[in-house]
């Protein structure tokens, strides 16, 4: 770190100040791919479908459950997500707002940089699609410069792509370079799996054929099962179930009291099975859970920052 670079603490404080000023519902900003999140007083779990994303937590912390795996990240740490994943989250400090910056990880933006990054040994299995770690001062400095552009909209079209490129480079040459690189490589296990994951996300109500998904990923069924679990920490069936139930919850809160009808729309032929699995995930049967959320005025829209 150069002598004139602000400390990590000062950079986190500065980024938090920009989040205070610019965070809006929905988390989108005028800079493409840059997201800001400020959450106050959220004590209960939230359920979201992530996308490939870098998250830098600047205040507070969060615990995520992905399948059987638990991930925690706090102020000064990062979360890297490399696939669309259904996760359960819980904020760790409800006494003050939790704040974070997100940057969408786009394969096209990573591809050219990945070719310039130092070579890494080839692996025989896909890396987990979620990782946490420390944010060093160089990465925080690049993130701070990107966020500053929200106050300088005339500079953003020219400088934002350059700062994004620097952030991605820091990731590629950092401790999680192998994880991030999988997004960019056309022949990586993750890229092949993401074809099947995308189909499952978009067609969650349809019957699932493992053989078809494996063929989509260019793998044998046994290899598909193995790599899918190593990436998502769950089986394909568990993955589909999570997406179905999260979608059902949104439908029930937003528009419908027809429990059986909603269950059928998301792929359940048995109303009793739908109610049983819904209660197991959300802690209450569909009607009571939806009524409670309506009373709170809290429609469970998928969060962009996990």
TrEMBL record:
Pfam families, sorted = AraC_N (PF06719), HTH_18 (PF12833)
Q: Which UniProt keywords apply?
A: DNA-binding, Transcription, Transcription regulation
The keyword DNA-binding belongs to this UniProt entry's keyword annotation: yes
Q: Which InterPro entries match?
A: Homeodomain-like_sf, HTH_AraC, HTH_AraC-typ_CS, Tscrpt_reg_HTH_AraC_N
Keyword check for Lipoprotein, yes or no: no
Give the Gene Ontology MF terms in alphabetical order: DNA-binding transcription factor activity; sequence-specific DNA binding
Residue ranges constituting the HTH araC/xylS-type domain according to the UniProt record:
194-292
Source organism, top-level taxon: Bacteria
Question: Matching PANTHER family, A to Z?
Answer: ARAC-FAMILY TRANSCRIPTIONAL REGULATOR, TRANSCRIPTIONAL REGULATORY PROTEIN
Q: What is this protein called?
A: AraC family transcriptional regulator
- The organism is Mycolicibacterium confluentis
């Amino acid at each position: 770190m150069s002598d004139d670079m602000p400390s990590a603490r000062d950079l986190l404080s500065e980024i938090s100040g920009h989040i205070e000023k610019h965070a809006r519902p929905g988390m989108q900003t005028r800079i493409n791919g840059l997201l800001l999140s400020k959450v106050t007083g959220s004590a209960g779990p939230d359920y979201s479908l992530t996308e490939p994303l870098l998250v830098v937590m600047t205040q507070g912390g969060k615990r995520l459950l992905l399948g059987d795996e638990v991930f925690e990240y706090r102020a000064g740490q990062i979360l890297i997500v490399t696939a669309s994943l259904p996760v359960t989250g819980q904020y760790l400090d409800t006494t003050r707002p939790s704040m974070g910056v997100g940057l969408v990880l786009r394969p096209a933006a990573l591809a050219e940089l990945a070719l310039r990054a130092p070579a890494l040994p080839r692996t025989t299995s896909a890396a987990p699609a979620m990782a946490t770690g420390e944010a060093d001062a160089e990465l925080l400095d690049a993130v701070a410069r990107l966020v500053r552009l929200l106050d300088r909209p005339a500079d953003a079209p020219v400088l934002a792509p350059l700062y994004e490129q620097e952030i991605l480079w820091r990731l590629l040459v950092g401790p999680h370079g192998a994880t991030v690189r999988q997004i960019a490589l056309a022949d990586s296990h993750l890229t092949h799996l993401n074809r099947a994951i995308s189909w499952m996300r978009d067609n969650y109500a349809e019957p699932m054929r493992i053989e078809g998904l494996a063929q989509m990923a260019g793998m044998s069924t046994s290899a598909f099962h193995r790599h899918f679990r190593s990436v998502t920490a769950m089986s394909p069936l568990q993955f589909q179930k999570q997406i179905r139930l999260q979608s059902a919850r949104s439908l029930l809160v937003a528009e419908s009291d027809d429990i059986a009808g909603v269950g059928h729309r998301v792929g359940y032929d048995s109303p009793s099975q739908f109610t049983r699995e819904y209660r197991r995930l959300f802690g209450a049967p569909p009607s009571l859970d939806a009524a409670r959320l309506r009373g709170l005025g809290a429609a469970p829209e998928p969060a962009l920052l996990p």
